[in-house]
Amino acid sequence: MQLEAHSLSFRYGKNPWLFKNVEFSVEPGEVVGLVGPSGFGKTTFCRILAGYEQPVEGSVTLGGNPLPVKGYHPVQLVFQHPERAVNPRWKMNKILNEAWKPDKELLDTLGIEQEWLARWPGELSGGELQRFCVARALGPETRFLIADEMTTMLDAVTQAQIWHAVLEIARQREMGIIVVSHEAKLVERLCDRVVELGRRL
Amino acid sequence: MSSLKNKRQRAILITVLAVVLLAGVVLLGFILDEEKIATHLDNRNSPPSLEHLFGTDWLGRDMFTRTMMGLSLSMGVGLAGALGSTMIAAFLGMIAATMGRAADAIVSWLIDLFLSVPHLVTLILISFSLGGGAKGIIVGIALTHWPSLSRVIRAEMMQIRSAEYVQVSRRMGRPGWWIAAKHIFPHILPQLLVGFLLMFPHAILHEAAVTFLGMGLSPHQPAIGIILSESMKYLSSGLWWLAFFPGLSLLFAVRLFDVIGGNLRLFTDPSKTHEE
């Protein structure tokens, strides 16, 4: 089940094209880095792959089929700011189990402690919250995970812990990962292949 | 007093007290004997005493009983009016936020239209054209008090609709109705409740005002507005208690509702859960 983008183009309204005719593909189990200067549409590109936006031209396919519009999206996106990606009126337990019930093993791998489950999002740190967002996105139907600056605002130890866990799970499940980051060292360390998104693609 | 250490516990205590007081007034309005507001010409114009806490009027009616009955009647009218208004606000706010640009433009225009005319003027017009009485007042209040709350609901809906966690929820395959029920409605509900409670004092005051002007409830009902407008004639002859106590009670009741509404806002805000 390959994730492919065919001649993808996007612009907001009548603004200049953010990117035009981008070809992109990820194999299952592959870790691909996506780099490029700020404002070149990396995040928008990720949002299209994960079904948050519709491309102006071109299409995204998974194993040759178009992505589903309804139901659980097989491409899950983890955002840079976890505090915005959780409902502040829900306790962590409810947030974690919104789509599926992660087992204890997964929570341990990601370093999520049981006592955090009874707390409000405002009572956890960014790193702690991001672990929940990652766990939530790793449902059994997730084929590809997109990490859009997923660990940028976290300290080095937390960063390493989360990435170890994610890579481990990805290997077990043959899940593809797309890493978007400005940290060249991180991308170099994690990825099998790096794609550069520039104006002239 | 260890239980009164933090702001939250103090607020809970005050809210409970306010609710009990208001409930007490409504209860008194029902259980007080009609006999007490019958005419007793032998006991006219007596100043406040232990037997007649608020004194008696020029027909010998007990002013305390009249005030309590008047307040509970006002609260009934206020309740109906504020409830109607809150429903209109919620309905229009949701339409504006979810039904596209044209609907939004129309609703926003309506809000601006109603906000540009003073409440009281529209209220008097509507209630007068419906022939006055409780029905006129209630419809009038319901039709005039929704705009600001509607604007709040519209803004909240727009904000939460594009919130990241709502979009995430959609990508995790949650159906639209589920998102509306679990994410959006719980977010709107506190605003609606607080809006409703804060509308209440307005509704009561405006009811009293319109009735005072003679375009509201009929003079046979013991409404606060009626009591106040009748008392005006006797103020100059030194019967100060006729207007003083009912007026004070009205202010007090209105303030209590304000306190309840304000505290409810405090309780429903999760970021204030642990405020000391």
UniProtKB/TrEMBL annotation, chain A:
<dbReference type="InterPro" id="IPR017871">
    <property type="entry name" value="ABC_transporter-like_CS"/>
</dbReference>
<dbReference type="GO" id="GO:0016887">
    <property type="term" value="F:ATP hydrolysis activity"/>
</dbReference>
<dbReference type="Pfam" id="PF00005">
    <property type="entry name" value="ABC_tran"/>
</dbReference>
<dbReference type="InterPro" id="IPR003593">
    <property type="entry name" value="AAA+_ATPase"/>
</dbReference>
<keyword id="KW-0547">Nucleotide-binding</keyword>
<dbReference type="InterPro" id="IPR027417">
    <property type="entry name" value="P-loop_NTPase"/>
</dbReference>
<keyword id="KW-0813">Transport</keyword>
<dbReference type="GO" id="GO:0005524">
    <property type="term" value="F:ATP binding"/>
</dbReference>
<protein>
    <submittedName>
        <fullName>ATP-binding cassette domain-containing protein</fullName>
    </submittedName>
</protein>
<dbReference type="InterPro" id="IPR050319">
    <property type="entry name" value="ABC_transp_ATP-bind"/>
</dbReference>
<keyword id="KW-0067">ATP-binding</keyword>
<dbReference type="InterPro" id="IPR003439">
    <property type="entry name" value="ABC_transporter-like_ATP-bd"/>
</dbReference>
<dbReference type="GO" id="GO:0055085">
    <property type="term" value="P:transmembrane transport"/>
</dbReference>
<feature type="domain" description="ABC transporter">
    <location>
        <begin position="3"/>
        <end position="201"/>
    </location>
</feature>
<comment type="similarity">
    <text>Belongs to the ABC transporter superfamily.</text>
</comment>
From TrEMBL, chain B:
<keyword id="KW-1133">Transmembrane helix</keyword>
<feature type="transmembrane region" description="Helical">
    <location>
        <begin position="73"/>
        <end position="97"/>
    </location>
</feature>
<feature type="transmembrane region" description="Helical">
    <location>
        <begin position="192"/>
        <end position="218"/>
    </location>
</feature>
<keyword id="KW-0813">Transport</keyword>
<dbReference type="InterPro" id="IPR000515">
    <property type="entry name" value="MetI-like"/>
</dbReference>
<feature type="transmembrane region" description="Helical">
    <location>
        <begin position="12"/>
        <end position="32"/>
    </location>
</feature>
<comment type="similarity">
    <text>Belongs to the binding-protein-dependent transport system permease family.</text>
</comment>
<keyword id="KW-1003">Cell membrane</keyword>
<keyword id="KW-0812">Transmembrane</keyword>
<feature type="transmembrane region" description="Helical">
    <location>
        <begin position="238"/>
        <end position="257"/>
    </location>
</feature>
<dbReference type="GO" id="GO:0055085">
    <property type="term" value="P:transmembrane transport"/>
</dbReference>
<dbReference type="Pfam" id="PF00528">
    <property type="entry name" value="BPD_transp_1"/>
</dbReference>
<keyword id="KW-0472">Membrane</keyword>
<dbReference type="InterPro" id="IPR035906">
    <property type="entry name" value="MetI-like_sf"/>
</dbReference>
<protein>
    <submittedName>
        <fullName>ABC transporter permease</fullName>
    </submittedName>
</protein>
<feature type="transmembrane region" description="Helical">
    <location>
        <begin position="109"/>
        <end position="130"/>
    </location>
</feature>
<dbReference type="InterPro" id="IPR050366">
    <property type="entry name" value="BP-dependent_transpt_permease"/>
</dbReference>
<feature type="domain" description="ABC transmembrane type-1">
    <location>
        <begin position="71"/>
        <end position="261"/>
    </location>
</feature>
<dbReference type="GO" id="GO:0005886">
    <property type="term" value="C:plasma membrane"/>
</dbReference>
